[in-house]
Amino acid sequence: MLLRAMFKPVHSFHCPACSSGNIHFALSAKDHTVSQMDFDIWHCNDCSFRFTQDIPAIHEIGAFYQSANYISHSNTKKGLINQLYHLVRNYTLGLKARQIKRFTGLQKGKLLDIGAGVGAFAATMKKAGWDVTALEPDESARKTAAETFGLTLSLPDELYQFTENSFDVITLWHVLEHVHDLQGYWKAFYSCLPKGGKLVIAVPNYTSADARHYQQDWAAYDVPRHLYHFSPASMQHLANQNGFSMVKMQPMWFDAFYVAMLSEQYKTGKINYLSAFIQGLKSDWAALGNAAKCSSVIYVMEKN
């Protein structure tokens, strides 16, 4: 493969979350979006964190995002799955705004959105009266944010430049799984928030029922763009070791259906909408009363 020849794999000998050497191969997953390459996923026995092994370096991984189907960067509405994504997003944007107000106890405040994509959530919060700073690495996504919402998004490196206690809340909606400098980001989260400040992180949950059902074809593995694969236990570990307390876990009910549709396509080469709906429903049913079992989980943390 051309892309394989373009990068030198970065191999991890220790868990990126807890630094343990007690790690082993778990499964292999395929990049269905861009390269069609297989990537191994490893598991940490000590904290249950998983990570993609032999990844492209930060300056080389951009090629694996170059697809018109990568919706968070392109904002595409091509195809039924992406049309459904936009319909659901219009609802969830308002839901997220209400959740942030509830999590923080604030009607207005200072918010940092990391990995803003095309800026839809940042624009929603700005319209609600919040003072919003948004970071996004992808140039085309920043351009779309400017054209669609009139937003100026900054590069992620600015995260390391903010003064202490700059924000009331930091949000990462399906972003932390993409970040090469995992430990550096957590240090920056701690610095940027005051005591009691909220950190809101949404990520896929590889311990969910849909992940178990689809296994290597589970779309939320999304290798190699997803460098990390979280369990509730591993997120709890990351919070504890970086000076945060877990306040609550919230389910993201719609994610199970969206992920199931993509997973069906990866598994069989076509989308069986009925099967995807049933698997999404089964996953959400298994998570009723326990958000830690949901396909994707919103983790709400507070700085100690």
Summarize the structure.
The chain has 304 residues and is of the alpha/beta class.
Describe this structure in words.
- This protein has helices at about 1-5, 70-75, 80-105, 120-125, 140-150, 180-190, 210-215, 230-240, 255-270, 275-285; strands at about 25-30, 40-45, 50, 110-115, 130-135, 170-175, 200-205, 230, 245-250, 295-304.
- The protein has about 300 residues and is an alpha/beta fold.
- Helix 3 packs across helix 4 (about 120-125) and helix 9 (about 255-270) packs across helix 10.
- The longest helix has 25 residues, at about 80-105.
- The radius of gyration is 18 Å and the shape is globular.
Features:
304 residues, alpha/beta, six-stranded mixed beta sheet, four-stranded antiparallel beta sheet, 10 helices
Topology overview:
Elements: H1 2-6, E1 23-30, E2 38-44, E3 50-52, H2 71-74, H3 80-104, E4 110-114, H4 120-127, E5 131-135, H5 139-149, E6 169-173, H6 182-192, E7 198-204, H7 209-214, E8 228-229, H8 232-241, E9 244-251, H9 255-268, H10 273-287, E10 296-303
Strand content: 15-25%
Mean pLDDT: 92
Spatial arrangement of strands, main beta sheet: 5-4-6-7-10-9
Q: What is the string of helix and strand elements? A: HEEEHHEHEHEHEHEHEHHE
Sheet having the most strands: 6 strands, mixed
Overall shape: it is globular
The number of helices is: 10
Using the CA coordinates, give the radius of gyration.
18 Å
Q: Roughly how many Å apart are the termini?
A: 47 Å
Given helix and strand content, the structural type is alpha/beta
The number of distinct β-strands equals 10
Helix coverage percent: 25-40%
Low-confidence sequence ranges: none
